TrEMBL record:
Pfam families in the cross-refs: Fer4_12
Keyword field: Iron, Iron-sulfur, Metal-binding, S-adenosyl-L-methionine
Keyword Secreted in annotation: no
Protein name: Putative DNA modification/repair radical SAM protein
Recorded superkingdom: Bacteria
GO MF terms, alphabetically ordered: catalytic activity; iron-sulfur cluster binding; metal ion binding
Length: 441
């Protein structure tokens, strides 16, 4: 371990932004907050994320670690205590100054703050709480703040952070207890799931009910009207470091959404930065393509009404790398097609490849006012190069429909080939870092 001393804030920034790049759990804000003329910054539900908000604006977060020093020795982590890498730590005031100065220059719209574990979880979370409290109360910053909760930290400090942050997240790290024990022996599922349950249930102290569950004892006497983690929580899983199938991964995801009411589950394709782990779960030519398919399936769970067992099973445990999960499902359920768009209900329309949430809603409204045609569907956002194989419109087809599974799968794979090529050859867009701006102290 190389411990650096007397570093400038720019030197710390370079180390601690690079150290944070493997944490992907930045997401839309989902909350509104105005500064009411008493501070700087505000937060809109339209979204703070890596690249684009819901209204099309390109936005960004200051994404840093508070420190990359760590007492744990997780095999997959570049910041593990046994690695010989430059170490740095911010002070609370340094994080506040960076956030404010970058915001004033219009470089960022919010803060994503994670950390290695310095001394112990409570000590580190205490520093994070001090940082965010100062941003809110001394620097009057009302922008979006996403904080990573550290497993093992006390309920009291988690509660305090929850009243000053917009979103909190606790990394699940690996999908199974066995994988966690193998690659992160200092961590355990109890310490990970307990703060997730506390964030889900709200402020207060968790008391075991004696049946492997918890009840919340809410504190009384709060004198302010602060909301507890108003934008909810998310988590992240590393995929490919342990041999779980896509079916196992998505089953864990479905359970997390149902039991902890998460806003998002993020998937991070395993990168063997320490060159010390075999990767038996890499499926297909590129782990990034597998990650892409998992995100597509995640979207189907959250917005399209699919269940994991509809998409995968023990006999078919992994996604088709050549087809997106929705198209793959449709090709394997041709008995449910074609769908007549003038009569099908909303949830049936959602099952059609090329019809999304917005276009399905537009169809259900527009057909009350007259007959639709394929040109109308295209204007509503329907991707006809996919949907045309699965729909009729007023009893008519756009192209001759084929019930040949193999031929249809090949045709649909061709429509997706450009996107797959970009993922496999690493030509997709990447997150901009603050170092790209050529900043100097």
């Amino acid at each position: 371990m190389e411990i650096t001393q007397d570093m400038t804030i720019s030197e710390k920034l370079k180390i601690l932004t690079d150290a944070a790049k493997y944490d992907v759990a930045c997401t839309s804000s989902g909350v509104d907050r105005s500064n009411k003329g008493q501070g700087i910054g505000d937060t809109h539900a339209c979204g703070i994320c890596h690249t684009f908000s819901a209204d099309g604006r390109c936005v960004s977060l200051l994404k840093i670690l508070f420190t990359n020093e760590c007492i744990f020795d997780c095999k997959y982590c570049i910041n593990r205590k046994s690695n010989d890498v430059p170490r740095a730590s911010f002070t609370p005031d340094e994080v506040c100054r960076l956030t404010i100065e970058f915001y004033r220059r219009n470089y960022i719209e919010g803060l994503f703050l994670s950390s290695g574990i310095l001394k112990n979880p409570d000590y580190t979370m205490g520093l994070i709480y001090e940082t965010v409290w100062k941003l809110r109360n001394e620097y009057k910053f009302f922008g979006y703040i996403h904080v990573k909760a550290i497993p093992g930290a006390s309920e009291d400090i988690i509660e305090k952070v929850g009243f000053v942050a917009d979103r909190m997240s606790v990394n699940l790290e690996l999908p199974t207890k066995e994988g966690l024990q193998q690659l992160a022996p200092n961590k355990n599922y109890t310490n990970i799931l307990k703060p997730m349950k506390q964030i889900q249930m709200g402020s207060g102290r968790l008391i075991s009910d004696g049946k492997e569950g918890y009840q919340i004892v809410t504190r009384t006497g709060r004198k302010n009207n602060s909301k507890f983690v108003p934008a909810g929580q998310s988590t992240q899983m590393i995929i490919g470091a342990t041999p779980e199938t896509d079916y196992q991964l998505m089953s864990v995801t479905e359970t997390m959404y149902k039991q902890f009411n998460l806003k998002r589950v993020f998937y991070s394709a395993f990168v063997d930065v320490n060159h010390n782990i075999d990767s038996p779960a890499i499926i297909g030519p590129n782990p990034m393509l597998r990650e892409h398919r998992l995100y597509q399936a995640d979207w189907l769970l959250r917005y399209y009404g699919f269940g994991v067992k509809e998409l995968l099973n023990k006999e078919h445990p992994n996604f088709n790398v050549a087809l997106d999960p929705k198209c793959d499902w449709a090709v394997n359920h041709l008995d449910k097609f074609p769908v007549e768009v003038m009569r099908a209900d909303y949830y049936t329309l959602l099952r059609v490849p090329g019809i999304g949430v917005k276009s399905a809603r537009r169809i259900t409204v527009a057909r009350h006012y007259g007959m639709l045609d394929f040109n109308s569907l295209k204007k509503m956002g329907v991707v006809l190069k996919r949907a045309a194989y699965f729909i009729t419109c007023g009893g008519k087809t756009m192209i001759p429909l084929s019930m040949d599974q193999d031929a249809l799968a090949r045709t649909l794979a061709d429509t997706d080939r450009k996107q797959v090529y970009a993922i496999e050859n690493d030509t997709t867009y990447k997150q901009m870092t603050l170092m790209d701006l050529g900043l100097k102290q």
